[in-house]
C-alpha cells in the first residue's frame, strides 16, 4: 500500500502547497506594508496637519505663525553663522596651497616623517563594476606620496561572481606590489567589508576610507599626513568632498549642496562647537583607533555612528579643506531619493543611540557648554527642524485653502505679510538664507557655475521643504522598522 503523500494530487500534498502559497502571500504583504507604511504615514501627517490648521481659531493661527517664523529664523541664522565661521578653514587651505606652489610642491614636513597609510577603497561590485578598475588605477598611479608608505586596498563584496573582472583585479596585484585586493565572503554591507579588512595586520599607521566613486586629489593623502604630523592630538582627518559629474540637473544642484556642507558647514560647526565628524568617505583615522573601533553593521549610516562613538571616547576629528576628493552624485531623482532616505533614517538611528552624549563626558574630561549645545543642535534640533519646516508649510497651505488668492499680490500678502511683526522675521530669515548662499558662492568648486548657483538660489526654499519631508520619511521608516541597505546607483 502506497503512502498517502506519494501522489502529487493527494490531500496532504495539496494542503502543503496551500500553506506554502499562504506563507508567500503573507511575506509579500509584509514587504509591501513595510515599503508603503512610511509613505502612508507622511501623507497622513501632511493632510491631518493642514486640516488642523484650517480649523484653528484666528488667535491660535497668530501664535503658531509667529512660533514657526521664530524657529525657522533660528535654523536659518544658525546655518548662516556656521557658514561664516567655515570660511576661515577655506582661506587657510588656500594659503597653504599657495605656499606649497611657491615652494615647488615641497611640503612643510619631510617625507621620512610621513606615516604609513592604508588607502581603503570600498566597493559593492555589481553596482560599481564599470568604474572599479579605473578608480584603483587612479589611486595607484596619480596619488603623490612616498611609494613605500602608501598601500592601496580594494575591499569588495558581490552576491555572485563577476568575471572576467574579478580575475583581472586579482592579477593587478602582480603588476602593482602596493595593491591588495580583498574579496569579503558573506559581506552584505560596507561595514562588513571594512570590519573584515580591520582583521588584517598591515602595519599601517593611518587608514583612509574612500567609496569606490572617489578620485582623491593627487595631494590628498599627503595633506592628511601633514595634519597628523603637525598635530599629534588629532585622531581623525575628514576632507572635503567635491561633486565632479555636473553635466545634468541633479548633480549640479548636489554639487552646490556639497560645497555648502563640506566646505563651510562642517568646518564652521567644528569651530563653533569644538568637535568635528567623520563623514563616511575621504576620511583618515589613526589605524589602531579604527581597528579597535570597527563599524556597526546594524546602522544604516555606520560612518556617522562611528564618528559619534569616537567623539564619545574623547577623540578629536579635524576638517581639512586641502584633503580634497572628487566624487559622483546621483544623476536621477530615484537614485537621489534612495541615497537620501538611507541617510535620513541613518541619522535618525544615530540621533536616538547617541543622544546621551548631551549629558555624558569622555573619560578624564568634562564637556563644555558649547559642545553640549552643539550635540543638542546636531542630534535634536536637526531632527526637530523637519517638523518645524513642514508644519510651517502646512500652515501656509491652510491659508491658501481658506482664503484662495485671486492674484500674485494677494498670494504673497496671504502667506508672508499677514501680520506687521511677521514681516521682520521673514526679512531676517530670508537675509540669513541669502548670506548662507553668498558664503557658499565664495567657496563653490570649479565644477559649478554661477548659472547653477542662481538656479540653486531659486529652488533653495522648496529644496529645504523636500529635505524636511525626507527627514520625516526617515522617521517613518524607522517606526516601520525598514532595514534595507540601498547602495547609491553609479549610473
From TrEMBL:
Q: Which InterPro entries match?
A: Glyco_trans_2-like, Glycosyltr_2/OpgH_subfam, Nucleotide-diphossugar_trans
Name the UniProt key words of this record, in alphabetical order: Glycosyltransferase, Membrane, Transferase, Transmembrane, Transmembrane helix
Reply yes or no: does the keyword Transferase apply: yes
Localization annotation: Membrane
GO MF entry, a single one: glycosyltransferase activity
Q: Which residues cross the membrane?
A: 45-68, 395-417, 424-441, 453-473
Q: Name one GO cellular component term.
A: membrane
Q: Where is the Glycosyltransferase 2-like domain?
A: 208-430
Q: Please report the record's description of how this protein sits within the membrane.
A: Multi-pass membrane protein
Q: What is its main location?
A: membrane
Name the SUPFAM superfamilies for this protein: Nucleotide-diphospho-sugar transferases
Q: What is this protein called?
A: Glycosyltransferase 2-like domain-containing protein
Q: Which organism is it from?
A: Extremus antarcticus
Amino acid at each position: 500500500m502506497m503512502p498517502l503523500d506519494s501522489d502529487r494530487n493527494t490531500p496532504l500534498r495539496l494542503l502543503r502547497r496551500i500553506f506554502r502559497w499562504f506563507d508567500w502571500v503573507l511575506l509579500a504583504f509584509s514587504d509591501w506594508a513595510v515599503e508603503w507604511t512610511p509613505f502612508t504615514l507622511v501623507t497622513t501627517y501632511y493632510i491631518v496637519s493642514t486640516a488642523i490648521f484650517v480649523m484653528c481659531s484666528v488667535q491660535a493661527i497668530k501664535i503658531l505663525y509667529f512660533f514657526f517664523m521664530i524657529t525657522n529664523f533660528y535654523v536659518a541664522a544658525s546655518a548662516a553663522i556656521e557658514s561664516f565661521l567655515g570660511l576661515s578653514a577655506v582661506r587657510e587651505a588656500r594659503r597653504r596651497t599657495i605656499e606649497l606652489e611657491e615652494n615647488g610642491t615641497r611640503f612643510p614636513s619631510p617625507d621620512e616623517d610621513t606615516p604609513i597609510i592604508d588607502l581603503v577603497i570600498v566597493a559593492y561590485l555589481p553596482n560599481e563594476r564599470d568604474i572599479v578598475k579605473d578608480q584603483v588605477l587612479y589611486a595607484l598611479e596619480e596619488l603623490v606620496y612616498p611609494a613605500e608608505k602608501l598601500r592601496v586596498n580594494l575591499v569588495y563584496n558581490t552576491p555572485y561572481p563577476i568575471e572576467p573582472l574579478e580575475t583581472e583585479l586579482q592579477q593587478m596585484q602582480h603588476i602593482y606590489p602596493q595593491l591588495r585586493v580583498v574579496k569579503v565572503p558573506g559581506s552584505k554591507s560596507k561595514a562588513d567589508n571594512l570590519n573584515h579588512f580591520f582583521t588584517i595586520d598591515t602595519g599601517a599607521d593611518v587608514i583612509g576610507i574612500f567609496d569606490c566613486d572617489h578620485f582623491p586629489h593627487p595631494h590628498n593623502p599627503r595633506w592628511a599626513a601633514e595634519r597628523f604630523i603637525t598635530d599629534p592630538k588629532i585622531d581623525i582627518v575628514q576632507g572635503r568632498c567635491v561633486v565632479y559629474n555636473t553635466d545634468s540637473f541633479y548633480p549640479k544642484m548636489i554639487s552646490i549642496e556639497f560645497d555648502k556642507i563640506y566646505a563651510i558647514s562642517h568646518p564652521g560647526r567644528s569651530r563653533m562647537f569644538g568637535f568635528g565628524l567623520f563623514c563616511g568617505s575621504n576620511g583618515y583615522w589613526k589605524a589602531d583607533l579604527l581597528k579597535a573601533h570597527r563599524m556597526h553593521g546594524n546602522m544604516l549610516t555606520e560612518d556617522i555612528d562611528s564618528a559619534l562613538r569616537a567623539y564619545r571616547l574623547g577623540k578629536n576629528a579635524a576638517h581639512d579643506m586641502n584633503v580634497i576628493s572628487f566624487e559622483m552624485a546621483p544623476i536621477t531623482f530615484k537614485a537621489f531619493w534612495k541615497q537620501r532616505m538611507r541617510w535620513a533614517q541613518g541619522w535618525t538611528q544615530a540621533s536616538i543611540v547617541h543622544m546621551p552624549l548631551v549629558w555624558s563626558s569622555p573619560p578624564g574630561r568634562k564637556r563644555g557648554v558649547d559642545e553640549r549645545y552643539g550635540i543638542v543642535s546636531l542630534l535634536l534640533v536637526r531632527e526637530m527642524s523637519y517638523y518645524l519646516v513642514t508644519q510651517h508649510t502646512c500652515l501656509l497651505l491652510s491659508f491658501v485653502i481658506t482664503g484662495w488668492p485671486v492674484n500674485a499680490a494677494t498670494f504673497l500678502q496671504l502667506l508672508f505679510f499677514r501680520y506687521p511683526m511677521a514681516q521682520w522675521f521673514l526679512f531676517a530669515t530670508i537675509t540669513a538664507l541669502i548670506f548662507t548662499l553668498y558664503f557658499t558662492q565664495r567657496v563653490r568648486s570649479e565644477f559649478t557655475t554661477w548659472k547653477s548657483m542662481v538656479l540653486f538660489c531659486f529652488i533653495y526654499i522648496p529644496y529645504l521643504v523636500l529635505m524636511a519631508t525626507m527627514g520625516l520619511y526617515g522617521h517613518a521608516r524607522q517606526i516601520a522598522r525598514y532595514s534595507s541597505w540601498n547602495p547609491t546607483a553609479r549610473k
